[in-house]
Amino acid sequence: MVSAFQAFKLSYRDLVEMMAERGLSLAHTTIMRWVHRYAPEFERRWNQFARPAGPSWRVDETYVKIRGKWVYLYQAVDSAGQTVDFRLSSRRDVGAAKAFFRKAIKSQGSAPGTITLDGYAASHRAVREMKTDAQLPADTMVRSSKYLNNLIEQDHRGVKLRLSPMLGFKWFRTAAIVIAGIELLRRIHKGQFNLGRLRLKDRSTPAVWDAVLAA
Question: Tens digits of per-residue pLDDT, 143-155?
């Protein structure tokens, strides 16, 4: 149920109604607690099998509302649209951009060869300062291109389509966990995991999930 909530345009109350039709009674707060408890563990288990994204990153940020205020979702994809990483931030500035790049480099195990940004000055400054501080290679190429960043705009839309039924969040941590779960399901659908070593005979969705969670 947790993965269904993350994968489809459903709210907690939608799932409550679906379960009621099947004779199961539960509260939407129960589902929320399940998401909080299990989504981070799902992400940890699946990341054992993650494939690295490509070295050309498209980076941008979008907006998410928490308690009536906007916060910022930093995202990056590679040139094929594969997810690089994401980070939810209360600020949109040089420090937030640097924190996102550090997280993405750590998750990928290497720095990008090319970074495509929009015209926002803080992100460009963050890259310059990280190159000066040797947190990024000096030869990392940086460019601005609205056309090339269409890929990341599509990724923004994919996440927001799943967030819109939730009508906003009350807590930053809740938003971060839910978005992490949504991003995980999107990476699975994009085929960003190498499950060859599991030697699966049954490749149905429940069998794959059971094998990954048991690994």
Answer: 987 766 777 888 8
| Angstrom distance (rounded) from CA 78 to CA 40 | 24
Are 177 and 35 in contact by the 8 Å Cβ rule? The answer is yes
Contact between 182 and 6 (Cβ < 8 Å): yes
The kind and range of the H/E element at 59 are strand 56-66
Question: Are 193 and 45 contacting, i.e. CB atoms less than 8 angstroms apart?
Answer: no
Question: What does the DSSP 8-state code read for residue 8?
Answer: T
| 114: amino acid identity, one letter | T
Q: What is the pLDDT of residues 74-119, one digit of tens each?
A: 999 999 999 999 999 999 999 999 999 999 999 999 999 999 998 8
Contact assessment for residue 148 and residue 141, using Cβ atoms and an 8 Å cutoff: no
